[in-house]
Amino acid sequence: MTRPDDWLDDSPKEECGVLGVYVPGAEAARVAFFALYALQHRGQESAGLAVSDGRQVRMHKDMGLVSQVFDEDVLATLPGEMAVGHTRYSTTGASVLHNAQPIFCQSVVGEIGVAHNGNLINARELRAELTAEGEAFDGTADSEIIARLLVRHMHLGPENAVAATMKRLEGAFSVCVLTPGMILAFRDPHGVRPLMAGSVGDGWMVASESCAFFPVGGVATHEVRPGELVIIDRDGMRFAQAAPPRKEAKCLFEFIYFARPDSKMFETTINAARRRMGMELAREQPASADIVVPVPDSGIPAARGFAEVSGLPFVDGMIKNRYIHRTFIQPDQRMRELGVRMKLAPMVDELAGKRVVLVDDSIVRATTTRQIVRMLLDSGAREVHVRITAPPIKWPCFYGIDMSSRGELAAAHMTVEEIRAHIGADSLGYLSVEAATRAVGKPSERFCLACFTGDYPIPVPDGLSKDALAHPPDVGQLATVVVKP
Ligand code: SF4
């Protein structure tokens, strides 16, 4: 899917952040607002909060960043001690307000607000079935299907409603639900998308990543298990196994790129995992060079690890403009060609005459990498050796990441040497799947690796995969290609 601001950066886009907070005696909307800030990297298209005062659930959501969607006046309209929140990057459903979340529905227990991160692979069938039974959907997001199923089962009680809903869902989902008196948070039986639980003050909290806890004085103490349900109410926080766990399939890309470096999941901090990926990369794909330069920000820990093992100096060869966010202003042709310069600027003095190892997290379409290599060479770098802390991405993601078609993935139709030539680098090397999972510290069987291997842990129905997999397989060799040693 080509997006209006892909000319700025073609890296894979995050998929959504969810959270729920219960803060006795405090304003949940205010706490949730600051926690949502820490999940901004997971979605910048829209943001929303649903808040309960114990009797009524109220909601506010809009297009834009958290800081654009909420102000003091808005927060004042959201009284109560319980809240769920959402930051959105659309992976199914258009990027429009009626697909923003939380999704608000009436149920037998009162209004509910539903926030979802992930992607259902049986959304088409469920939508058709529910529509045939008389459901009139407000939007096109698959998250609304979850909300409608929950509403249908609420007469069983909230906890049983979650169990009954989970039986119908196939795919990746971490979900937070607010009822007038309760927060319910659950993770799919494969555990694809992250979800953490913990405390905040005298209350309780759940969030996509542990980085959301810190700014509000919270502590993430438990990674929600595959198929597990977290129940937060005035009696505290408790856990139940709402669906039997299936083959574990945590998204490896969370560790490579999506999650924030200070987050902790699968018993490691993301920063440490990325540093180890850089160390593995230096062993698997060494380069004859003078300096190691990261593509900021996600390439920084890996570049440090690469420098440590290779003995080459780590150099800040580029600076990132931190104030560039999603834009829907269309560039003219000249700006489109300059593209990445809006986000990154070279430190010319550091680069002049140097043989550079450029460390980045991934190559999707290769347009951004190509522009960065060009920029470094134009700034005086003598050679650029690109090293990537992910294996080649050859297959689309059906579990909530915006890499939905084989046709747009460079490694699906080019060999490593062809990509090397396309981006204009002197050499190109990728990290192997084995080394990437070793760097996280868990066996590769416990991860989803589908976008690298084509081995989908949750079977993808034919109707969904036909278009996305249309591109003929042409798997390039995993190897370093050195043109100018
Ligand atoms: S296909 Fe790739 S991006 Fe998608 S969930 Fe699996 S590892 Fe993550």
Largest sheet: 7 strands, antiparallel
The class by helix and strand makeup works out as alpha+beta
Q: What is the CATH third-level topology name of the largest domain?
A: Glutamine Phosphoribosylpyrophosphate, subunit 1, domain 1
Compute the gyration radius: what is it? 22 Å
Count of helix runs: 17
Q: Ligands in the structure?
A: iron/sulfur cluster
Low-confidence stretches: 471-485
Principal-axis shape equals globular
Number of separate structural domains: 2
Structure description:
A hairpin with a 2-residue loop joins strand 5 (103-107) and strand 6. The model is unreliable at 471-485 (pLDDT under 50). This protein is an alpha+beta fold. It is 28% helix and 25% strand. The longest helix is centred in the middle third of the chain and has 15 residues, at 270-284. Iron/sulfur cluster binds at residues 192, 251-253, 397, 399, 401, 448-451.
Short description:
The protein is α+β, with helices and mostly antiparallel strands. The chain folds into two domains: 16-246, Aminohydrolase, N-terminal nucleophile (Ntn) domain (Glutamine Phosphoribosylpyrophosphate, subunit 1, domain 1, 4-Layer Sandwich); 273-482, Rossmann fold (3-Layer(aba) Sandwich).
